[in-house]
């Protein structure tokens, strides 16, 4: 069956490649042929190669509600977190539909990862009971629907590192259990198969660690052991997905002054690793961290960052905790920060984020 009757296949496919990601649900509903076409991995690859893909910053962001009054005192309720979407090229903000049955919002401190055209939301704390959640929710940008994934195995785990290879798998490592014991264990989730697999343990315990995926490896950065309680390590470990093994620990992965709190990291396609730490944007090249530029004062408390294909760096943060969230693009070509317009609805606190190109 032809994609578009009486039109050459190459031209018909070009028409689909040029559509906005927001039209994917409509395209999927038109006919089975169109739905199958945009679901193919080659469709996404061709879309990126042809320059028609769209970059999205996906955030777990608090919805801004007025403070409620109780008698003569004031009570600040637990924030309700939802999924906000920023298109960094245009500066447009939108919101995804809520997870069905989650009227109190996303789990607190959940982790986000992108795989193909899917967004994966993993773990966190129940916003009502504050109990550790092992939940997995998946949003498909192809049909604009949520589905439940297989729960995380291995018992309760929170404040873990999480990153994806962007194509099939989400990797999870470290964190702590319900007794606040730091963990060495690691697991991997195959989104297409909806299946978890156990991975070899890391070389050391890592609670409240950070993670990024680059150069074919899952990097787990910083964190601390149970007895260290907040004394963040400067070390890092990386898991080679192809070899299915952990590499030798990098003892001084983080530079001096970057170990108080795990930096917010993001990898560029050229293999360089960027990090926001304190008031600086830094880059690691040839195993050496170098300062690139000062962060703007109103975003120096960075919640999330990503390196775009164009070479621009997008950062989301605030002047300090509790202040409104803002966003910036930094252009490597001219070393300029450009502030993104942020409407009041999208100024809430950001707990997690991921980058998606579809």
TrEMBL record:
Keyword Transmembrane helix: no
Alphabetical keyword list: Kelch repeat, Repeat
GO cellular component: cytosol
Stored InterPro entries: Kelch-typ_b-propeller, Kelch_1, KMD1-4
Source organism superkingdom: Eukaryota
UniProt KW Cell wall biogenesis/degradation keyword: no
GO biological process, one term: negative regulation of cytokinin-activated signaling pathway
Gene3D superfamilies from the UniProt entry: Kelch-type beta propeller
Protein name as annotated: F-box domain-containing protein
Organism this protein belongs to: Brassica campestris (Field mustard)
């Amino acid at each position: 069956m032809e994609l578009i009757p009486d039109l050459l296949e190459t031209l018909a496919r070009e028409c689909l490649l040029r559509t906005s990601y927001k039209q994917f649900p409509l395209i999927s509903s038109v006919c089975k042929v169109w739905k199958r076409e945009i679901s193919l991995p080659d469709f996404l690859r061709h879309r990126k190669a042809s320059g028609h893909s769209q970059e999205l910053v996906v955030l777990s962001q608090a919805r801004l509600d007025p403070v409620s009054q109780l008698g003569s005192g004031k009570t600040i309720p637990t924030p309700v977190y939802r999924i906000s979407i920023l298109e960094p090229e245009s500066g447009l903000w939108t919101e995804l539909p809520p997870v069905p049955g989650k009227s109190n919002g996303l789990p607190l401190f959940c982790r986000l990862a992108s795989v193909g055209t899917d967004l994966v939301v993993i773990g966190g704390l129940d916003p009502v009971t504050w109990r550790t959640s092992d939940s997995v929710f998946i949003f498909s940008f192809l049909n604009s629907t949520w589905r439940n994934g297989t729960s995380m195995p291995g018992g309760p785990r929170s404040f873990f590192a999480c990153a994806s290879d962007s194509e099939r798998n989400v990797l999870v490592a470290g964190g702590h259990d319900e007794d606040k014991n730091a963990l060495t264990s690691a697991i991997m989730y195959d989104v297409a198969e909806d299946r978890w697999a156990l991975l070899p343990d890391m070389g050391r315990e890592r609670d409240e660690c950070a993670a990024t995926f680059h150069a074919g490896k899952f990097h787990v950065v910083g964190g601390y052991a149970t007895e260290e309680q907040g004394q963040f390590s400067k070390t890092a470990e990386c898991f080679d997905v192809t070899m299915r093994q952990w590499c030798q620990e990098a003892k001084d992965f983080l530079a001096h002054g970057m170990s108080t709190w795990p930096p917010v990291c993001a990898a560029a396609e050229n293999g360089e690793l960027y990090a926001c730490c304190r008031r600086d944007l830094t880059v690691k090249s040839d195993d050496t961290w170098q300062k690139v530029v000062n962060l703007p004062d109103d975003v120096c408390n960075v919640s999330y960052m990503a390196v775009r294909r164009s070479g621009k760096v997008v950062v989301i943060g605030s002047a300090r905790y509790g202040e409104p969230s803002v966003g910036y693009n930094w252009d490597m070509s001219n070393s300029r920060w450009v502030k993104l317009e942020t409407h009041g609805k999208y100024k809430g606190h950001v707990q997690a984020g991921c980058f998606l190109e579809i």
